[in-house]
Design a protein that fits this description.
The chain is an alpha/beta fold and 519 residues long. Helices cover 36% and strands 18% of the residues. The protein folds into three domains: 200 residues, FAD/NAD(P)-binding domain (3-Layer(bba) Sandwich); 134 residues, no CATH class; 134 residues, no CATH class. The strands form five sheets. The protein has a seven-stranded mixed β-sheet with strand order 7-6-15-16-17-14-18. α4 packs across α9.
């Protein structure tokens, strides 16, 4: 990596102090550039945060770290190693799946062999063999997709066509096959199908439309593991902020950006809502692409027309409705059911969930319940208490054309608590803290339009090309984060930051600032 000998210095302005923005900032500051971050809220981290309410802490954004190598690389290349700044712990078992017919399958961490053993004991040898073959396919897909689709700038379909083994790679990835259809080619088992379907929701998508390549998430989880950061995943945001400050990055919190300045097709800086102008050589937007192209830049700017058209064509991702439950076990006269870190309760009719979200645009009547209950002593102030973060998929906030989440959301929260009680989880009896977060809250807090968790969904073969490009057609403007390539979730956001960093370094000084190698 380029060191103190660099003669070329650039001034970089970053809009948004989310994980993507701070990851770019740290890498560019380490290379000797002057970096300032402008963040509308009073804190850093964006969606990645651990929130305290009374005696309870909740991961209200990501509740799991996968592909930790992405952040190990970032911390190693900008200072002290990740393990010297936060405590990264394996989550074992990684997931516990419950089905409406009473069956339960537990997925141990970091062992495909043990996962297939669990499937065999729950569903039989045939299902276990089918899962093994499905994961072999997922691994092949990951090997093919990783470099061109994940770790590189996705410039155009033409750039992929020039790859040596393009047609062989495409056959493996099966871009025009949906995740659901690919699963059906390997197994008819409804339990396995539901588990795979859930990987579509990781990118806010419908498994009946999402591309088969999302199966790679299943491989990544079992091969690279599920991890927790002691004290909450939000500790990653705190560690990243601290790293940035040590590297001299300047943070402007409570400072909204009103517009991106530009001249002759080149981004030249930003203007804040208070009218303050900040000129820069490069602008990095860690904001939702819809906000960047439709609010921070003029809608009639001809050079960005292609990006606005892409955004208009793409289907928005689903949103989420979450409960923050603080449970006091001393209120029971017996020990409650012991929860694993991640527990999923599937409904009988999973398809109804996607119909209600994407077609009818109404809250799901019988939703899949995702419960994150970390047995982390640093996330409660009393060993007899438990913090549960409960998430269900939900339609976006779209008053007029869809659902209006300002209308009595507390009724929906109560309905979910009744569902948890009906599952025998005894929530009401020990409930000390209850808050909920709607898609409207998400829209207001982190400027995610409609509360879409991941910007655009992956509901078509073209969806990868409909995400915002990392390199904007407006010169010297770059996009990073979940709504930009390669997508949402902590690992992809970290990779997105690396792509943007490498692109800017190459422009600043192609000779002296050598690109960092990928993992």
């Amino acid at each position: 990596m380029a060191g103190p000998v660099d003669l070329v210095m650039a001034k970089i302005v970053i809009i948004g102090a989310g994980i993507g923005g701070m990851s770019v900032a740290a890498r560019l500051a380490k290379a000797g550039n002057e970096v300032e971050i402008f963040e509308q809220s009073s804190r850093t981290g964006g969606k990645c945060r651990t929130e305290w309410i009374g005696d309870y802490a909740f991961d209200t954004g990501p509740s799991l770290l996968t592909l930790p190598a992405v952040y190990r690389d970032l911390f190693l290349k900008t200072g002290k190693r990740l393990e010297l700044t936060v405590k990264v712990l394996p989550v074992d078992p990684a997931f516990e799946y419950h089905f409406a017919d009473g069956k339960t399958i537990i997925f141990p961490n970091l062992s495909l062999f043990r996962i297939t053993q669990e499937i065999e004991s729950a569903l039989g040898k045939k299902a276990a063999d089918e899962w093994h073959r499905l994961m072999q396919r997922a691994e092949h897909m990951w090997d093919v997709a990783r470099e061109p689709f994940v770790e590189s700038e996705l410039k155009s379909i033409a750039s992929l066509l020039m790859r040596k083994n393009f047609f062989g790679e495409m056959k493996e990835i099966a871009p025009f096959t949906s995740l659901r259809k690919l699963t059906r080619a390997y197994t008819e088992d409804p339990h396995l199908s539901k588990i795979v379907d859930r990987y579509a929701t990781y990118s806010g998508s419908d498994p009946r439309k999402a591309p088969a390549v999302l199966l790679t998430i299943a491989f990544v989880e079992s091969a690279f593991g599920a991890w927790h950061i002691q004290g909450g995943i939000g500790k990653l945001s705190e560690a990243l902020e601290e790293r940035n400050r040590k590297l001299g990055v300047i943070f402007h919190l409570n400072t909204s950006v009103a517009s991106i300045l530009h001249k002759d097709g080149i981004a030249t800086g930003i203007e804040t809502e208070s009218g303050h102008t900040v000129l820069a050589d490069y602008v990095v937007a860690n904001a939702d692409a819809e906000v960047v192209y439709n609010q921070l830049l003029p809608r009639d700017l001809s050079v960005t027309k292609v990006e606005r058209k892409k955004l208009a064509k793409s289907e928005k991702s689903l949103a989420g409705f979450s409960l923050l439950l603080g449970l006091d076990n001393s209120r029971l006269d017996h020990a409650p059911k012991k929860m694993n870190h991640h527990t999923i309760y599937f409904p009988e009719d999973y398809d109804a969930e996607f119909d209600q979200i994407f077609s009818k645009k109404i809250p799901v009547n019988d939703p899949t319940l995702y419960i994150c209950a970390p047995a982390d002593p640093e996330m409660t102030k009393n060993p007899n208490k438990e913090s549960w973060f409960v998430l269900v998929n939900a339609p976006r906030h779209e008053p007029g054309s869809g659902w209006d989440w300002s209308q009595s959301p507390e009724k929906y929260a109560q309905k979910l608590i009744e569902k948890l009680d009906a599952l025998g989880l005894e929530v009401s009896q020990r409930l000390e803290v209850m808050e909920f977060r709607t898609p409207l809250d998400l829209e207001n807090e982190v400027r995610a339009p409609g509360g879409s968790i991941y910007g655009t969904s992956s509901n078509s073969a073209k969806s990868a090309f409909l995400r915002a490009s990392n390199r904007s057609p407006l010169k010297n403007l770059f996009c990073v984060g979940g709504s930009a390539h390669p997508g949402g979730g902590l690992p992809l956001v970290g990779i997105s930051a690396e792509i943007v960093t490498d692109a800017i370094k190459a422009l600043i000084s192609p000779q002296s600032q050598v690109s960092e190698s990928h993992h």
